[in-house]
Protein backbone atom coordinates (compact mmCIF):
# COMPACT_ATOMS: atom_id res chain seq x y z
CA UNK A 1 0.00 0.00 0.00
CA UNK A 2 2.96 2.28 0.61
CA UNK A 3 4.02 1.92 -3.04
CA UNK A 4 0.49 2.73 -4.22
CA UNK A 5 0.35 5.81 -2.00
CA UNK A 6 3.80 6.94 -3.08
CA UNK A 7 3.03 6.52 -6.77
CA UNK A 8 -0.29 8.37 -6.36
CA UNK A 9 1.42 11.15 -4.40
CA UNK A 10 -0.82 10.73 -1.38
CA UNK A 11 -0.46 9.37 2.12
CA UNK A 12 -1.12 5.75 3.00
CA UNK A 13 -4.02 6.93 5.17
CA UNK A 14 -5.61 8.52 2.11
CA UNK A 15 -5.40 5.22 0.23
CA UNK A 16 -6.99 3.38 3.17
CA UNK A 17 -9.83 5.92 3.33
CA UNK A 18 -10.80 4.92 -0.20
CA UNK A 19 -9.86 1.22 -0.21
CA UNK A 20 -10.21 -1.25 2.64
CA UNK A 21 -7.22 -3.35 1.55
CA UNK A 22 -4.93 -4.29 -1.35
CA UNK A 23 -7.63 -6.53 -2.81
CA UNK A 24 -9.89 -3.53 -3.34
CA UNK A 25 -6.99 -1.60 -4.90
CA UNK A 26 -6.37 -4.43 -7.40
CA UNK A 27 -10.09 -4.72 -8.18
CA UNK A 28 -10.23 -0.95 -8.75
CA UNK A 29 -7.24 -1.25 -11.07
CA UNK A 30 -9.00 -3.94 -13.08
CA UNK A 31 -12.16 -1.87 -13.30
CA UNK A 32 -10.10 1.13 -14.44
CA UNK A 33 -8.58 -0.91 -17.30
CA UNK A 34 -11.85 -2.45 -18.50
CA UNK A 35 -15.21 -1.31 -19.68
CA UNK A 36 -18.14 -2.73 -17.75
CA UNK A 37 -20.46 -5.06 -19.62
CA UNK A 38 -22.58 -2.82 -21.81
CA UNK A 39 -26.12 -2.09 -20.66
CA UNK A 40 -28.92 -3.34 -22.82
CA UNK A 41 -27.39 -6.69 -23.71
CA UNK A 42 -28.41 -8.05 -26.15
CA UNK A 43 -27.85 -5.11 -28.44
CA UNK A 44 -30.74 -4.25 -30.72
CA UNK A 45 -30.58 -5.83 -34.16
CA UNK A 46 -27.74 -8.25 -33.48
CA UNK A 47 -27.68 -12.00 -33.05
CA UNK A 48 -26.55 -13.59 -29.80
CA UNK A 49 -23.35 -14.59 -31.57
CA UNK A 50 -22.67 -11.06 -32.82
CA UNK A 51 -23.37 -9.65 -29.36
CA UNK A 52 -21.08 -12.16 -27.66
CA UNK A 53 -18.31 -11.50 -30.18
CA UNK A 54 -18.61 -7.76 -29.49
CA UNK A 55 -18.35 -8.27 -25.71
CA UNK A 56 -15.36 -10.59 -26.13
CA UNK A 57 -13.63 -8.01 -28.32
CA UNK A 58 -14.11 -5.42 -25.56
CA UNK A 59 -12.64 -7.85 -23.03
CA UNK A 60 -9.81 -8.65 -25.44
CA UNK A 61 -8.85 -4.97 -25.60
CA UNK A 62 -8.78 -4.81 -21.80
CA UNK A 63 -6.76 -8.02 -21.50
CA UNK A 64 -4.27 -6.72 -24.04
CA UNK A 65 -3.32 -4.03 -21.53
CA UNK A 66 0.26 -4.73 -20.39
CA UNK A 67 -0.89 -4.71 -16.74
CA UNK A 68 -3.24 -7.67 -17.20
CA UNK A 69 -0.78 -10.58 -16.98
CA UNK A 70 0.49 -9.26 -13.64
CA UNK A 71 -3.06 -8.75 -12.38
CA UNK A 72 -4.02 -12.28 -13.43
CA UNK A 73 -0.94 -13.76 -11.75
CA UNK A 74 -1.78 -11.88 -8.55
CA UNK A 75 -5.34 -13.23 -8.61
CA UNK A 76 -4.17 -16.79 -9.20
CA UNK A 77 -1.45 -16.65 -6.57
CA UNK A 78 -3.89 -15.20 -4.04
CA UNK A 79 -6.40 -17.98 -4.70
CA UNK A 80 -4.68 -20.13 -2.07
CA UNK A 81 -3.58 -17.22 0.11
CA UNK A 82 -5.72 -14.69 1.91
CA UNK A 83 -8.64 -15.38 -0.37
CA UNK A 84 -9.67 -11.73 -0.50
CA UNK A 85 -8.55 -10.76 -3.98
CA UNK A 86 -10.36 -13.40 -6.00
CA UNK A 87 -13.75 -12.91 -4.26
CA UNK A 88 -13.42 -9.13 -4.61
CA UNK A 89 -12.59 -9.33 -8.32
CA UNK A 90 -15.29 -11.95 -8.79
CA UNK A 91 -17.94 -9.73 -7.21
CA UNK A 92 -16.91 -6.51 -8.97
CA UNK A 93 -15.72 -7.76 -12.38
CA UNK A 94 -16.54 -11.40 -13.15
CA UNK A 95 -20.14 -11.61 -11.91
CA UNK A 96 -21.33 -8.63 -14.02
CA UNK A 97 -19.69 -10.30 -17.04
CA UNK A 98 -21.46 -13.58 -16.30
CA UNK A 99 -24.76 -11.69 -16.06
CA UNK A 100 -24.18 -10.09 -19.48
CA UNK A 101 -23.41 -13.49 -21.01
CA UNK A 102 -26.42 -15.03 -19.23
CA UNK A 103 -28.65 -12.40 -20.89
CA UNK A 104 -27.14 -13.29 -24.25
CA UNK A 105 -27.66 -17.01 -23.65
CA UNK A 106 -31.32 -16.42 -22.74
CA UNK A 107 -31.68 -14.34 -25.91
CA UNK A 108 -29.86 -16.98 -28.01
CA UNK A 109 -31.96 -19.86 -26.64
CA UNK A 110 -35.19 -17.90 -27.18
CA UNK A 111 -34.37 -17.13 -30.82
CA UNK A 112 -33.07 -20.64 -31.56
CA UNK A 113 -29.36 -19.82 -31.90
CA UNK A 114 -28.23 -21.73 -28.81
CA UNK A 115 -29.11 -25.12 -27.41
CA UNK A 116 -31.38 -24.96 -24.34
CA UNK A 117 -28.78 -26.85 -22.27
CA UNK A 118 -26.27 -23.97 -22.54
CA UNK A 119 -25.93 -21.78 -19.45
CA UNK A 120 -24.51 -18.29 -19.13
CA UNK A 121 -21.92 -19.44 -16.60
CA UNK A 122 -20.80 -22.30 -18.86
CA UNK A 123 -20.37 -20.10 -21.94
CA UNK A 124 -18.66 -17.38 -19.88
CA UNK A 125 -16.16 -19.85 -18.40
CA UNK A 126 -15.33 -21.41 -21.77
CA UNK A 127 -14.86 -18.13 -23.65
CA UNK A 128 -13.39 -15.89 -20.97
CA UNK A 129 -11.21 -18.72 -19.65
CA UNK A 130 -9.72 -18.91 -23.13
CA UNK A 131 -9.06 -15.15 -23.11
CA UNK A 132 -7.43 -15.35 -19.68
CA UNK A 133 -5.19 -18.23 -20.73
CA UNK A 134 -4.11 -16.44 -23.89
CA UNK A 135 -3.37 -13.26 -21.96
CA UNK A 136 -1.33 -15.13 -19.35
CA UNK A 137 0.71 -16.74 -22.13
CA UNK A 138 1.46 -13.31 -23.57
CA UNK A 139 -0.14 -14.14 -26.91
CA UNK A 140 -1.96 -11.43 -28.85
CA UNK A 141 -5.74 -11.23 -28.57
CA UNK A 142 -6.88 -10.11 -32.00
CA UNK A 143 -10.35 -9.65 -33.45
CA UNK A 144 -9.67 -12.48 -35.89
CA UNK A 145 -8.64 -14.82 -33.07
CA UNK A 146 -11.78 -13.94 -31.07
CA UNK A 147 -14.00 -14.54 -34.11
CA UNK A 148 -12.37 -17.95 -34.63
CA UNK A 149 -12.81 -18.89 -30.96
CA UNK A 150 -16.48 -17.90 -31.03
CA UNK A 151 -16.97 -19.85 -34.29
CA UNK A 152 -15.39 -22.95 -32.74
CA UNK A 153 -17.41 -22.73 -29.54
CA UNK A 154 -20.58 -22.06 -31.48
CA UNK A 155 -20.20 -25.42 -33.21
CA UNK A 156 -20.70 -27.13 -29.85
CA UNK A 157 -23.18 -24.76 -28.20
CA UNK A 158 -25.14 -23.48 -31.18
CA UNK A 159 -28.08 -25.07 -32.89
CA UNK A 160 -27.93 -26.34 -36.43
CA UNK A 161 -29.21 -23.05 -37.83
CA UNK A 162 -27.25 -22.10 -40.94
CA UNK A 163 -25.09 -19.05 -40.51
CA UNK A 164 -24.47 -16.36 -43.05
CA UNK A 165 -21.05 -15.11 -44.09
CA UNK A 166 -21.89 -11.62 -42.86
CA UNK A 167 -22.71 -12.98 -39.39
CA UNK A 168 -19.43 -14.84 -38.91
CA UNK A 169 -17.13 -12.42 -40.68
CA UNK A 170 -15.56 -15.21 -42.71
CA UNK A 171 -16.45 -17.55 -45.50
CA UNK A 172 -18.22 -20.78 -44.46
CA UNK A 173 -16.01 -23.83 -44.42
CA UNK A 174 -12.81 -21.83 -44.06
CA UNK A 175 -10.34 -23.95 -42.11
CA UNK A 176 -6.74 -23.72 -41.07
CA UNK A 177 -4.56 -23.28 -38.04
CA UNK A 178 -5.04 -19.93 -36.36
CA UNK A 179 -3.51 -19.20 -33.01
Explain the layout of strands and helices.
Blueprint: H1 2-8, H2 12-18, H3 22-33, H4 48-63, H5 68-78, H6 85-110, H7 120-136, H8 143-157, H9 165-168
Helix pairs in contact: 1-2, 3-6, 4-6, 4-7, 4-8, 6-7, 7-8
Structural commentary:
This protein is mostly helical and 179 residues long. The protein has one domain: Tetracycline Repressor, domain 2 (Orthogonal Bundle), CATH 1.10.357. The chain contains nine helices and no strands. The chain is elongated and about 60 Å long.
CATH topology-level name? Tetracycline Repressor, domain 2
Q: Globular, elongated, flat, extended or rod-shaped: what is the shape? A: elongated
Radius of gyration: 18 Å
Mean pLDDT: 78
The major sheet is characterized as: none
- Classified by CATH, the class is Mainly Alpha
CATH hierarchy: architecture: Orthogonal Bundle
At the fourth level of CATH, the homologous superfamily is Tetracycline Repressor, domain 2
The low-pLDDT segments are 162-179
Number of domains: 1
Structural class: mainly alpha
The SSE string, one letter per element, is HHHHHHHHH
Amino acid sequence: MEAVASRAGVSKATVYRRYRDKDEVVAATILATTDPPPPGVPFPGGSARQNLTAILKMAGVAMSNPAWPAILRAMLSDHHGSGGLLPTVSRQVIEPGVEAVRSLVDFGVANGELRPSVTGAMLHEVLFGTLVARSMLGKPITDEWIENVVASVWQGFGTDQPESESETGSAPGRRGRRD
